[in-house]
Amino acid sequence: MLPRLTVRWLIFLLIASVPVAFIVAPIGSFLLISFFRADKHEIIRELTLFNYVNFFGNWTYSGTYLGTILLCLEVVAVSVLVGYPIAWFIWQQNGSRRYLMLLLAVVPLFMSYIVKLYTLRSMFGLNGLVNQLLLSLGILEKPSQLFLFNQRAVLVTMVVIYLPFVILPIFLALERIPRSLLHASIDLGAGAWDTFRRIVLPLSFPGTVAGALFVFVLALGDFITPQMVGGTTGFTIGRVIFSQFGLAFDWPFGAAMAAILFLTALAGILMAGFAMSRQKV
Amino acid sequence: MRSNGEKFAKIVTGTITAIVFAVLYAPLFISVLFSLVEIRRGKILWETFSFGPYFTLWSNPSVLSALSNTAVVALTAVAVASVLAVVLALYTEWEGAIGRRALELVIYLPFLLPPIVTGLALLVTSAELGINRGITTIIVGHTVFVLAVSYRLVLTRLQSLPRSLIEASFDLGASRLQTLRYVLLPHLASAVVTGAVLALALSFDETLISTFVAGDQMTLPLRLWAMMRVGFTPEINALVTLVLLVTIILALVTAWRLKPGGELGEE
C-alpha cells in the first residue's frame, strides 16, 4: 500500500495533467518563443530580450499599445456609464418582468460576433441607418463618412458588443443588496437620492469594477473589430499581434507583444477577482 | 409614496434601456428583414419578398461543410469539456485536493483571457509539435474555452449538495464508487446539461480562437465572415438569421434552466 501523501500527489498529477497539457503548456510555449528571435522567417532558438527591447524602444509599437489601453479605458467608461443605468432600471422592475428584461440584456451576448460587427458597420456606413436618420431629421445635408473607419467607430462598436458584460455583473451586485437596507434608509428619512448614493452605489461598486475589468480584458485583445470598423486609423495591439502571425510572419515578436498583453490581462483578471471578493453583501 | 426624483430617474434610465435594446437587437431584425426582401439604394423592394434564400442555402456546399464542421467541433468539445468539468469539480471539492486555487485559475484562464492569447498559444504549440491545424486543433481550442463554463456550473451544484447526503450514503454501506455512481452523478446531471447547452451556444459562435487554429478548415462563423467580405446577399442574411436563431434558442434554454425558483434554483 502506497503512503497517503504519495497517493494524493499521484491523483493530483493525473487530474492536473489535462489542464497543464492544454492550457498551461500552450501559454508557456508562446511565452518561451517570445524570447527567441526571427530572422528572415526563420526562428533562431537562442534566448534573447531582442523582441522586448524592440517593443519598448519603438514608439510605433509601444505607442499603439498605450493607445489601445486608452481606447479600452474609454470603452470601459462608456460601457459603465450606459450599462449602470440599464442595470439599475432592470433591478427596479418587479417579478417576472425583471427576469425577462435581464434576459433581453444578456441574450445579445450569444448573437454572433461577426454578424454584430457587420450590422453595425452597415449601420454606420454611407448609406447606413445612422446617416439616413440624420438626413431625414435634417441634421445632415449629405451623408457623412464620419461614422465609420475611425477610432470613434471602434469605440462605439466595442461598447455595443461588450455592453451586456457590464450590465450582468452590475445587476447581480444590485440584486444582492438586501431590501431591508433600502427600507431602513427610507424609514430613517433619507431621500431616494441619498439612499442611492450612500447605500446602493457603494454596495454595487465591487460588481461594477468586476464588470468593467472584464470588458477591459475582452476589448484589449480584440483584433477583428478594429480591422472591420477602424479602417487604417484603427490600429490596436491585437491587430498588430495578429499581423505578426500573418503577413509579417514574425512569430517571436508577435508572441512578445502577446506576452505583454497577457500580463496586462492577467493583472485585470486578478484585480476583478479581488473586487468580487470584497463584495460585502 | 414615490418621489418625483425617483420617477424621473426611472424615465431616464428606461429611455436609455429602450434605445440600447433597440441597438443590441438591430442585427437580428436587419438580418431577418434582408433575408426576405431585397434592398436597392436604401429602398426596400417589398415585391421581392420570398423565403427562397432559406432553401437555396442548403445546396451551397461550402455552407454545408462549414455547418458539419461546426457541429462536429461543438459536440465533441462540449462532450469532452463536460466530462473534464465533472472530474475537475469532484477533485477540487475533495478534501485531499492539492493546489485547488491554482487549478481553478488555470481552468478559468482561457475563458477570461483575450481570445487572441488562447488562440495564438495553441497555434504556437501545434506548430512546435508539428501538428497540422484543422478540426482537431479547433476542438482543443473550443474545449478549453468552454470548460470554464461547465466547470463553474457543476461546481456550484456540487457545493450546494448537503454533506449529509454523502454521509448517509457511506453510513448505509455504499463504497466511494457507489456513492459517486448513485448519489453524486445523478445530482450533477442537470447542471452538466445546463453547462453543455451554454457551452454549445458559445462554441457555435466562437470566432477569435478559431481564426488562429482553424488552418484551412472553416467553421460557420469563419465561413460567414468570408462570405460577408464579398458582399451581402439574401442568402447570407438567411444563414445569419438561422445562426442567430440557434444561438438565441440555446441561450433561452440555458436561461430557463437557470431561472430563479426553477429547476436549478439560485445558481
Annotate the secondary structure layout.
The complex is a heterodimer of chains A (281) and B (267).
Chain A: H1 4-33, E1 37-39, E2 42-44, H2 50-57, H3 59-92, H4 95-106, H5 113-124, H6 129-136, H7 151-175, H8 179-187, H9 192-221, H10 224-229, H11 237-244, H12 251-277
Antiparallel strand pairs in A: 1-2
Chain B: H1 4-36, E1 38-40, E2 43-45, H2 52-56, H3 61-93, H4 100-112, H5 115-128, H6 135-160, H7 163-171, H8 176-205, H9 208-213, H10 220-230, H11 234-258
Helix pairs in contact in B: 1-11, 3-6, 3-8, 3-10, 4-6, 5-6, 6-8, 7-8, 8-11, 10-11
Quickly list its features:
heterodimer; A: 281 residues; mainly alpha; two-stranded antiparallel ribbon; 2% strand; B: 267 residues; disordered C terminus
Explain briefly what this protein structure is.
The complex is a heterodimer of chains A (281) and B (267). Chain A is an all-alpha fold. Chain A has twelve helices and two strands, in the order H-E-E-H-H-H-H-H-H-H-H-H-H-H.
What does this molecule look like?
The complex is a heterodimer of chains A (281) and B (267). Chain A is mainly alpha-helical and 281 residues long. In chain A, α2 crosses α3, α8 runs antiparallel to α9 and α9 runs antiparallel to α12. The model of chain A has no long low-confidence stretch (mean pLDDT 88). In chain B, 77% of the residues lie in helices and 2% in strands. With 267 residues, chain B is mostly helical. In chain B, α3 runs antiparallel to α10, α4 crosses α6 and α5 crosses α6. Chain B contains 11 helices and 2 strands, in the order αββαααααααααα. Chain B folds into 2 domains: 45 residues, no CATH class; 207 residues, Orthogonal Bundle (MetI-like fold). Chains A and B meet through α1, α3, α4, α5 and α7 of A and α1, α3, α4, α5 and α6 of B.
